[in-house]
């Protein structure tokens, strides 16, 4: 069943055409990535989905219903963790529920059982500044999924981490995802990350962004931690070639 | 957070040693100079004489200190409320901000020497003109600090909140206000050092009692020792307010100390 469905969505900001006829969908429990050169308009797609931008052509539906401005349908994880430095970890991860009007006590009760899985048990009462980058990112992810929205929108969530921590986080994340099967839309420019984590990948062109390729990743899961299969290598090479031609056009 | 408090106290003492030594030596040099030069106490009284006179006149000084404390606290409270209310108004209405901000800036260019007698003329010898003058002098640093503090909010946090469906009020309460707190306390510390001085000045221009009146009378009676006694009390009041504000800041902004030394 399709959770998120974008049909021929176009966006023009000022005089610049940013998105051109973008059609994509995410099925229930599916992990979909959007891969594109930087500045292509990946984050514009997220701005549409979070309601930050409401001038567009085309249709965006969730569970078959057009999304309405002012009513949140998806939860969003920004590139930097955006944890509030003045809130303890526990109060940071319950933020989304609090904004939804859930009482603090109830929000804490909902989130508490998840702390352990997210490697944050025992750190609830720490401030973000006291945690490592990986832990902060896990807290940001918990804050995202705790909102219980239809689709998790992840904007390069591992981009700011060092290489080692990133691999650890991807491994951890794949394990969590396999258990929970959140419907996920990931934006990234890291080909290896996209191939490693996704069921399906859309490739965006340079601006104005169009979808120039859609591929399915056949490799069995879990993929992280085991040797990369030849099919994935081939896919990575193919995607990289497509992306490089795009950046080439741009100069 | 993990720093134990006795350790912290020790560190604070160790850090304040140079200040204590320098202040103390200044007084010692002053005392020695007065004794060696045999200068008249009508011109420059020694610190020991100032302390002696403080003790001898303690009742009179105390009677005149309470109105100053009252005026300072009342004026500063008003200033705090006005600064907060205005800052919120200005944050929610950028137009009003552009309209009113120049007026606030101009209010800070008015020379107190000229304004204070006028305010006394308009509002009499009671508490009102003092409260107004203190508020006039102290609200601006706090207002500027708050307005700048709101603008310092991490835009990622704001867009995150909006993506969660937060209203403008919610974004203000959950992100902009807490982001402004470190700025606010910086402004508060500046303001608070002006408060007592403004109160004394307002009294000096026209009042029935207060440290300002003590200073005025002592000056007219050629009693520099009593002038200095009032000055010492006024300094101590300011220092006390300063310390209180620092303690409140420590308590409210504990998150800023978190993560230090990690």
Structural overview:
Chain B: This is ABC transporter permease. Chain B: It holds the Pfam family BPD_transp_1. Chain B: It comes from Marinomonas vulgaris. Chain B: It is a multi-pass membrane protein. The complex is a heterodimer of chains A (251) and B (262). Chain A is an alpha/beta fold and 251 residues long. Chain A contains 8 helices and 10 strands. Chain A has helices at 42-49, 89-93, 95-99, 104-115, 133-145, 163-180, 191-197, 230-250; strands at 2-13, 16-27, 31-35, 57-62, 65-66, 74-77, 151-155, 184-188, 200-204, 211-216. In chain A, the strands form 2 sheets. In chain A, strands 6-7-8-3-9-10 form a 6-stranded mixed β-sheet, with helices on both faces. Chain A has a 4-stranded antiparallel β-sheet with strand order 2-1-4-5, with helices on one face. In chain A, a hairpin with a 2-residue loop joins β1 and β2. In chain A, α7 (191-197) packs antiparallel against α8. The model of chain A has no long low-confidence stretch (mean pLDDT 90). Chain B is an all-alpha fold. Chain B has a single domain (26-37, 45-253), classed as Orthogonal Bundle (MetI-like fold). In chain B, 84% of the residues lie in helices and 0% in strands. Chain B has helices at 5-37, 47-56, 58-92, 94-107, 112-123, 127-151, 155-163, 168-205, 211-220, 224-252, 254-257. In chain B, α5 (112-123) crosses α6 (127-151). The longest helix of chain B is centred in the C-terminal third of the chain and has 38 residues, at 168-205. The A-B interface holds A 50-52, 70-72, 74-76, 78-80, 82, 84-87, 95-96, 99-100, 126-130, 147 and B 1, 154, 156-157, 159-166, 170, 174-175, 178, 181, 253, 255-256, 258-259, 262.
């Amino acid at each position: 069943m399709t959770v998120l469905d974008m049909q021929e969505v176009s966006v023009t900001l000022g005089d610049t055409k940013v998105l051109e006829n973008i059609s994509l969908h995410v099925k229930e429990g599916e992990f979909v990535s959007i891969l594109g050169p930087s500045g292509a308009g990946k984050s514009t797609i997220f701005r549409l989905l979070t309601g930050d931008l409401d001038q567009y052509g085309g249709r965006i539906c969730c569970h078959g219903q057009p999304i309405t401005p002012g009513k949140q349908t998806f939860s969003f994880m920004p590139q930097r963790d955006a944890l509030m430095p003045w809130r303890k970890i526990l109060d940071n991860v319950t933020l989304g529920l609090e904004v939804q009007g859930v009482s603090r006590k109830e929000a804490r009760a909902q989130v508490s059982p998840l702390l352990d899985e997210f490697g944050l048990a025992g750190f609830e009462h720490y401030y973000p500044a006291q945690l490592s980058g990986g832990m902060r990112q896990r807290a940001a992810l918990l804050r995202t999924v705790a909102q219980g929205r239809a689709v998790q929108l992840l904007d390069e969530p591992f981009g700011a981490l060092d290489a080692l921590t990133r691999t650890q986080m991807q491994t951890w994340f794949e394990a969590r995802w396999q258990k929970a099967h959140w419907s996920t839309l990931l934006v990234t420019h890291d080909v290896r990350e996209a191939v490693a984590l996704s069921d399906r990948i859309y490739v965006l062109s340079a601006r104005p962004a169009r979808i120039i390729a859609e591929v399915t990743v056949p490799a069995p899961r879990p993929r992280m931690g085991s040797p990369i299969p030849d099919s994935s290598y081939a896919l990575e090479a193919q995607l990289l070639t497509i992306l490089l031609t795009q950046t080439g056009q741009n100069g | 957070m993990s720093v134990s408090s006795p350790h912290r106290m020790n560190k604070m003492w160790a850090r304040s040693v140079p200040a204590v030594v320098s202040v103390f030596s200044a007084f010692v040099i002053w005392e020695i100079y007065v004794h060696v030069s045999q200068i008249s106490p009508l011109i420059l009284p020694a610190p020991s004489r100032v302390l002696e006179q403080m003790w001898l006149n303690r009742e009179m000084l105390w009677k005149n200190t309470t109105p100053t404390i009252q005026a300072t606290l009342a004026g500063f409270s008003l200033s705090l409320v006005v600064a907060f209310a205005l800052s919120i108004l200005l944050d929610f209405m950028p137009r009003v901000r552009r309209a009113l901000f120049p007026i606030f800036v101009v209010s800070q260019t008015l020379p107190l020497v000229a304004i204070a007698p006028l305010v006394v003329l308009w509002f009499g010898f009671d508490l009102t003109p003092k409260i107004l003058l203190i508020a006039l002098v102290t609200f601006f640093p706090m207002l500027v600090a708050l307005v700048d503090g709101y603008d310092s909010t991490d835009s990622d946090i704001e867009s995150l909140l909006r993506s969660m469906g937060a209203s403008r009020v919610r974004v203000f309460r959950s992100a902009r206000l807490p982001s402004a707190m470190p700025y606010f306390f910086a402004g508060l510390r500046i303001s608070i050092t002006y408060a007592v001085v403004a109160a004394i000045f307002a009294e000096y221009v026209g009042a029935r009692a207060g440290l300002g009146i003590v200073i005025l009378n002592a000056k007219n009676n050629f009693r520099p020792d009593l002038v200095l006694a009032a000055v010492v009390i006024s300094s101590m009041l300011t220092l006390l307010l300063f310390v209180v504000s620092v303690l409140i800041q420590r308590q409210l902004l504990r998150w800023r100390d978190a993560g230090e030394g990690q």
